[in-house]
Amino acid sequence: MGKTVAVLADPAGCAQSLALVTRLIEGRGHRASPLDVTAEEPGRLCARLCGLVAEGRVDGVLGLGSPAVAAAVGRAMRQLPFALPKLLASPLAGDPGEVERLVGTRDIALHATVVDLAGMNPLLAAQLANAAGALCGMVETSRAIALPAGRPLVAVSSFGFAEMAAQAALGMLEEAGFVPVVCHAQGRGDRAMEEMTADGRFQGVLDLCLGGVTENLFGGNRDPGPDRLMAAVRRGVPMVLAPAGLDVLSYGGRPDRLAATAGRARYVQDSLRIQVRTTADELRRAAEVVAERLNQAAGPFTVLIPTRGWSSLDRPGMPTWDPEAAAAFTRRLAERLARPRALRLVDLHLYSRDFARAAVDELVRLFASTDTPAGEQP
């Protein structure tokens, strides 16, 4: 049985492109349902499209993003459910500066047509055939997300300097009856984790990498925005938090920031990956922000502070080792947290299996302390 593909486009601006992809989709045995992105205001279009998906009347979405309407097409597609097949074909898709505007943190496949969608020519026709074929392949093989009964989904934040603990935690979480989902804390990844938590995707969070807080406060490259932690805080899901990433700021490729922090210890991987040590004052400010947000938490949480170091960079012999700055964070957090027992110091290094074990055990304890049946949202 054929599927229904919604095609978002500006019929006046790319009429021949729309006609071609319609024929191609129908040639694969599916139904093409064009939607004019210029016919109604964006909010109404998004609501109508999401309604069609919820009713089971749309199985996938192909966006034709001519430069004039690419933003409107992307805005509509970003509202669609996770894992619904969606592909945006546009000459703008090859521009790194446009990715955030078109996709944000959503699972939208981008197809760079290189040439514009106006008129028709052999180069454009080949690109549209590829785009339509890719989307048809998606709807033909797509399947619903199968959530295992009684096994809560848990988000796990990770990045390279905490990878050992994050990787070890995955197997431990699975053994404890959870389904772990790793979100890479490079800025966009932890922002996606926040958005999916707000959407109710996750029933718990093992947040090993809080570095997005300092990245946002002090203009680092891994800035996830100003709402870090708030999704889990508002939804009341159990949280175990750890300070990986708070020990450094990512300033690679940023001559202004590197000049401003010229006197500080740093770890240089290459010109685009330079980690600058955070100061005690910066960490005190970060502690105040973390405490302010956690004090609003509707559910249980624990902050685990490993006293032997916070990342693979934070250990004796490394240039960014600074236990005094770390202690300043811990003291200020203890002063500001409304639930002082939620702060626990452990005589471990974060970059270790032992710390992963402590963090997973604490998350299991928090789940057991709630009245939430396994797999359900607290």
Structure, described:
This protein is an alpha/beta fold and 378 residues long. Helices cover 39% and strands 18% of the residues. It is built from 13 helices and 14 strands. The protein has helices spanning 15-27, 42-54, 70-77, 96-102, 122-141, 163-175, 188-198, 212-217, 230-235, 255-260, 280-294, 323-336, 353-369; strands at 4-9, 31-36, 60-64, 86-90, 109-112, 153-158, 179-184, 204-207, 239-241, 248-250, 266-270, 273-277, 301-306, 343-346. The strands form three sheets. Strands 7-6-8-9-13-14 form a six-stranded parallel β-sheet, sandwiched between helices. Strands 2-1-3-4-5 form a five-stranded parallel β-sheet, sandwiched between helices. A three-stranded antiparallel β-sheet has the order 10-12-11, with no helix packed on it. A hairpin with a 2-residue loop joins strand 11 and strand 12 (273-277). Residues 373-378 have low confidence and may be disordered.
